[in-house]
Amino acid sequence: MDTIASLFSFITTPVSWVIVQFHSVYGAIFGPDTGWAWGLSIVSLVILIRICLIPLFVKQIKATRAMQTLQPEMKKIQERYKNDRQRQSEEMMKLYKETGTNPLSSCLPILAQSPFFFALYHVLNSIASGDTIGVINERLLESAQKAHIFGAPLAAKFTDSADKVEALNASLTDVRVVTAIMIVLMSLSQFYTQRQLMTKNVDTTVKTPFMQQQKMLMYVFPVIFAVFGINFPVGVLVYWLTTNVWTMGQQMYVIHNNPTPGSKAQAAYLERLSKSVSKHGRTRGRGERAIVKAIVAKGRDRNEYERKFVNGLNKEGLAAQADGTVIKSESTAAAQAEDAAAAKRQQPKRQTKSQRQSGAAKAAGEPTSLTKSDEPEDAKPAGPVKKDNAKPAGSTRSRAQSGQRKGPQRPKSPSKK
User: Would the pLDDT of 252 be above 80?
Assistant: First the structure.
């Protein structure tokens, strides 16, 4: 480990200088030889480095989402050229070039942070060994060796012997309890950060090997931190625990305000955004406009949550524009009125009073009768009907139409036998 850390010795001087500057500020408040002064100096170093790495973190998010989008195409290439590794690599590089994607971009924050991590390890290891390094002179070296964080010296490790710990004016039990707690917290924070990414901010509509790899890393990384953590000095554990907490909070902010399309986090975000836009009648802030603009630009390629969001705005009489703004739409209101009219036309026709009475009579088993307005003209009787078996005039008309004489007929004489 010392060999690897020594490779980054060129940056130990800047790192030690930053720590000393913060120590001079916190030492005036808490005392120069206290663990608070040195511990907060390390925490401040982490915050300063992570602020400088925010642009790389943004690139990491974009690269990760671009890789998730390309997973189906990458899978097709792997299946098509599964027996030709060289052609498969060529097609992959061609795909990356066409889409402007760099697989290494997702590792940029870790790669950029590594020199500072190893430089800090080298500085703290030199303090434990009693060697000056960078801008840390003998006076600062003696002050750092006296500093204890909850009873554990800044340069002590979990694997240190009792004699080495006693030389730092500390107890082996205190060192191991403090380092064990910090290792556990470091592993748990790493696990929660990765689990939050997998359960909330991953597109669940696309099942790819990339998701399986991320799921595996969710369990592998905490184990790696636990194994290597026992060889880290307390100051390095403070550095790495602070880094994990920062990463966890930063990721929570990104998931809440800029989730991955198709993820559960996007569904929750669009639901909140829909309520906000419906209440105020517009998008508020550049972030909301950017989200709406991206959804409008997708057109028919919108996912289920995005279509639901757009339809919800239309129902409220609002329309999302290409620039990310939301306006009241007259066409949307007209479409709503047309839909209401169509629904009204589809309702069953209202029955007349006679039709309702006829239906009630049929239900009661009574004979139905036609009113004057409902009777057909040909079915009206020629005169009052005296008997039930009287023939209607319609039969006389039908015989007259067949060539017989109109008027009353003379009865035929009985035939003679």
Answer: yes
- For 15, phi then psi, to 5°, come to -65, -45
Query: Residue 390, SS3?
Result: coil
Per-residue three-class SS string for the chain: CHHHHHCCHHHHHHHHHHHHHHHHHHHHHHCCCCHHHHHHHHHHHHHHHHHHCHHHHHHHHHHHHHHHHHHHHHHHHHHHCCCCHHHHHHHHHHHHHHHCCCHHHHHHHHHHHHHHHHHHHHHHHHHHHCCCECCECHHHHHHHHHCEECCEECCCCCCCCHHHHHHCCCCHHHHHHHHHHHHHHHHHHHHHHHHHHHHHCCCCCCCCHHHHHHHHHHHHHHHHHHHHHCCCCHHHHHHHHHHHHHHHHHHHHHHHHCCCCCCHHHHHHHHHHHHHHHHHCCCCCHHHHHHHHHHHHHHHHCCHHHHHHHHHHHHCCEEECCCCCEEECHHHHHHHHHHHHHHHHCCCCCCCHHHHHHHHHHHHCCCCCCCCCCCCHHHCCCCCCCCCCCCCHHHHHHHHHCCCCCCCCCCCCCCCC
**Mean pLDDT for the stretch of residues 256-260:** 81
Tracing tokens 């206290």 back to the chain, one arrives at 34
317 within 8 A of 333, measured Cβ to Cβ: yes
Q: Flag whether pLDDT at 301 surpasses 80.
A: no
Query: Rounded CA gap, 243 and 238, in Å?
Result: 9
Q: Quick one: which of 177, 173, 228, 182 has its CA closest to 39?
A: 182
> Is residue 406 predicted with pLDDT exceeding 70?
no
Mean pLDDT (the chain, rounded):
76
Kind and range of the H or E run holding 256: helix 234-257
Q: How far apart are CA 41 and CA 24, in angstroms?
A: 9
Beta bridge partners of 320: 326
Q: Which pLDDT score is estimated for 399?
A: 46
C-alpha 186: how far from its chain's center? 25
Residue 354 pLDDT exceeds 80: no
Comparing 339 with 268, the larger pLDDT belongs to: 268
